[in-house]
Amino acid sequence: MSKKDQQFENLRREIALKSGTVLENLLRYNSLIKGLQNEVKNLSEGVNPEYFRLLLKNIEKNIASNIELVKEGSIKAINLISTLEKEVIDKKLLQEETKILKEIVLSRENIMDWKGYAREILKKLRKIYPYDAFFFIFEEEQHLKVYLFTSYRMEKTTERTVIGALKERLGLPLHKKIEFEEVPITGKRMQKHFRQIHIETHSFLQDSPGIGGVLGLVVLSESRLTKKEENILNSILSIMTLVTGSSRALSRAITELEYYAGHDPLTGLYNRRIFEDLLRYEVSRAQRKNYHFSLILIDLDNFKYINDTYGHHTGDMVLKSVADILESSIRDGDLVARIGGDEFVIMLSETPLEQAIQVAERIRKNLEENRICTMDGSVISVSASLGVVEFPTHGRTKEELLIVVDNALYRAKDMGKNKVYVPTVEEIENTIKEKRKEFAVLQEAIENDLFIPFFQPIYDLKNDTVHAYEVLARLKTEDGEIISAYRFISLAEKLGKIKEVDRIIIKKALGMKKRHNIKEKLFINLSAKDISDGDFWDYIFTEVQNLKISPEEIVFEITEREAVREIAEVQMLILRLKEKGFCFAIDDFGSGYSSFYYMKYFPIDYVKIDGEFIRELNPADTKSVAFVESMNFLCKKLQIKTVAESIESQEILKLLKDIGIDFGQGFYLGYPSPTFL
Fold this sequence. Notes:
Number of domains: 3
Strand order of the largest sheet: 15-16-18-19-20-21-22-23
Number of strands: 23
Number of helices: 22
């Protein structure tokens, strides 16, 4: 192969490589969007935010279209190289194109500042051919936006002539306003004499407003361009399609994704994650500045009744109406967030308890007086229970404040709902004292290695043999009492100790499996905190390797509701586990709103059907049977194994066998035990 042939081959390889990188980024964000579509459903706790689903679907469509754009652009670019190869192209031009392609990196910084990034690439592309301007046109709802990247600062007459030529050449619609923005590539000003304006264009994603459009190059010359020059301009446009088109699509997607990562998609309020981050900051700031602030926790009364009676659309209206009332009830600088289905929280900065109580009473009254008209003409009202606490009176840490305000809210509900409740000093002391006692027990159990694994058998329903064991956590006190997981898991998660508990349980379970030469699989539960913790996974992989346990004998499982909160991290984790040979299961399958998403897009091995579906099974109830049959049918089509949880009778076991469920567990088949069968 000659040097020239090698250079063309290198150029093809670089375009293929960069196209692959762009596609990888697009596919990653496409996965995030699919996850957010399901997160919208999960956050709404049964509410159906149609607007936001359509919005996210539109983003997904744009990125899917952009994937096709990159594929098409890559093919065009490679074809152009073949055309150039047949022409007399100098060595320097080939070297410059290859060098520029190698420098294209779609990092987050480059994507978010796509104009600045495009300017830098265009500056380098002028070494290949001294074009006069590059333009990028895309359609907004009410106007056309034209970015004109000029190689130098043009004289006004030249600029007007170029813009006029663009309008005429591209047939820009007269009924829409056209907004031009000039982006000089260099700061130099020059006057150029020319007789002809040559315009070379590429169109892409014309049916995706705000993303696609037309990009092109402008050359001011004394004579017509040669075929060779036109081919060079087309090769430059192929590179800029990758840079500008993909950067713009990703920039739009990232902006919207980052918004929804921190906001509730239905109401637009901050979500729980952002609220807890801001609360932690407010605590530290109040400690430094020595001031008080207050929290108001709000839970709607009888919201489930409204949802069930009037439908999810009305539920949406109620939640958005409540959000509007809460936002109108606070000052600039205060914060309101939606942290659950019908649960809201307000943080009043630099506000003492007395003022916070007044705000809470005003909110309670405003909500009580609010009237909402339903689609069928009915008029409904909504009330709320509110708990109010003050920093540092009711707690000196984020965790203490949340525990006390949560208890205050429940006291308000116990008093008959539609009440504002402030905990007494005695209640605060008792609550914090109880939580500190629980924390001490938890910390002692971690330090003294008191957590032990229990094993519940999972049977193969076809031959009634043990297929696997689910590992369950128990706390064995020093006097021999066995405490179930539900007594300490929630506290361990709130206090950030869950990973330490998980490590202890997993290490002991793996050790027992090895010592007793158990070949059946182990199903190991993961907490949300484990998902993105690299140190945790390095620890687990090392333990498995040191014990010489086959990864195929380990099944990691996470609940559907936990998975949807960390959708991107879960997807990457599953791929990492699968690469190493481990298996993966989704627990409580069907309890959320994202079941079919996991089945379609995640390479999962098992789904554990939520126990609620199994307990409700009745041969006479065709609906209950149909749900389980449908899940089993889809799993079979996708080659995913099914596990039925909570089997508690012979009748349900027989029905599950008739349906064709693969595996089962429950008290009827076997209780959790500290030993294997």
